[in-house]
Amino acid sequence: MGYLFLAKLTKSKLIGVIFSLLFVTSYIGLMATTWASSHVVYVDLILIILASYQYLLYLSAKTKRNFILFLIILALAVISDPGRAFPFAGVLVFLFLIDTYRRSEKNIFRQIFRNKELRKIAIYFSVTLVVLIGWKVLVGKDYTGAIGRPHKSIPFETLKYFFGSIANLIFDPFLRPSEFALESIKQMEGAYFLSAIILPVIWLVGLYRFIKTRSHWWSVFSVLFFWVFVFNIPSWLNYPRSYIAATHRYMTLPGFGFIGLLALAIYLIQKKNRPFAVLLFIAMLFINILTVNFYLKQEEAFRDEKTISRVWATINKSIPQQEEQSLVYVTGDEPLATYGIDYTAFGAIALMRGTKNPSETIRISNDLEKLANLLCHQGINSEKLLKEKQGFLRFHAFYIKNNGETRDITQAELLPLEMVFQKKDACSNLRKKYGDIYVGETTK
């Protein structure tokens, strides 16, 4: 499917082939493959790509058949996952603007309002939005796909996380050894901050070059870069204060555009220096294969059922059965502590304690500050109050080894927790950093 879209967009079958080989070997969005619950991501991707391809066919041929097929596939894409598909509206408008301007038509914005098909698409999206809102009002359930609302507001400063997650598409192969280390993220803060400046500037320069030259290649560059940006919006809304790893399932859609940019770069390089382009392509495949193998071996470490069961048996035994809203801090050997325990907590607690609302039973994180942020929302806003209510905190901490051995380190971790509240305006700063309401790792 990706081949069809890239070949049509770029008017080059070779780019389609380069893209296909890079995509099937890529580490980007790997969890959409290795996590059974995430396979639906590929359904969303296929439908969005097919809809994009049909839209390009319509723009070139202007036939009613292509437009009807496009609408049908678009409907399936939105139904499949509204939360992931809504940025597609921006892609459609951008493609129309690029195509109209490339054809040297004047008053392109007037063309938007005069175009009957675009008006139909706008009406379609509006009707879909009304249906989704109506579902929420009448049934009382969200129907927004993967989009969550963990924060009441998203301050401007979180843009560094938006662009930082995109930068991880490049950085990830070189960050593999320390993916789970919070210290390594702090060391990358400067690079993430620069990415928030450099990435939009690169896109704007490319868009400017297209406007000045009407170049086909600059138009392709602008579209693919725009694709990366807009399809990263859902992930950012869900994780506005987190740098998302390239392997995460939420990076599959923006990663599609990124790999398209790599394929475009290799194609343009080979037109001037074919041997270098071939070496670059082989190097990218080699990096992909090495990185994928690293993550597959890493996942083996936390997919052992006996090991995970051993850890949860210890944790469950250490927490009183009738206790609710327990705060659990996990640390230790990675990736077991994060992926094997932190990310699977709700399911494990639901099974062991027979509860339908595990989020009310346990809040778990591998970040002590996130748990401190929850305490702030429970009225504990100083070190003094923390010490006074220590007996009522329901706080537990565990150190987990890769062999499943688990030690209770609650008393040892109380001091680091107190140190968090020793900082000036601790709760105010935690709220700015982690949000207006608590979001643990397990809500991801």
> How confident is the prediction overall: mean pLDDT?
78
From the helix content, strand content and strand pairing, which structural class follows?
mainly alpha
Reading the helices and strands in chain order gives HHHHHHHHHHHHHHHHHEHHHEHHEEHH
Rg estimate, integer Å:
24 Å
| Counted beta strands | 4
Quaternary arrangement of the chains shown? Answer: single chain
Outline the low-pLDDT stretches. 135-150, 177-183, 438-444
Strand numbers in spatial order across the main sheet: 2-1-3-4
Please, how many helices? 24
Silhouette: elongated
Strand portion: under 5%
What's the story with the biggest beta sheet?
4 strands, mixed
Instruction: Measure the end-to-end span.
Output: 29 Å
In total, how many domains does the architecture comprise?
A: 2
Instruction: State the share of residues found in helices, binned by percent.
Output: 55-70%
Description:
With 444 residues, the chain is mainly alpha-helical. It has two domains: 297 residues, no CATH class; 139 residues, no CATH class. Helix content is 68%, strand content 5%. The chain has a four-stranded mixed beta sheet, sandwiched between helices. β3 and β4 form a beta hairpin. α10 crosses α12 and α15 packs antiparallel against α16. The radius of gyration is 24 Å and the shape is elongated. The protein starts with a helix and ends in a 10-residue tail after the last helix.
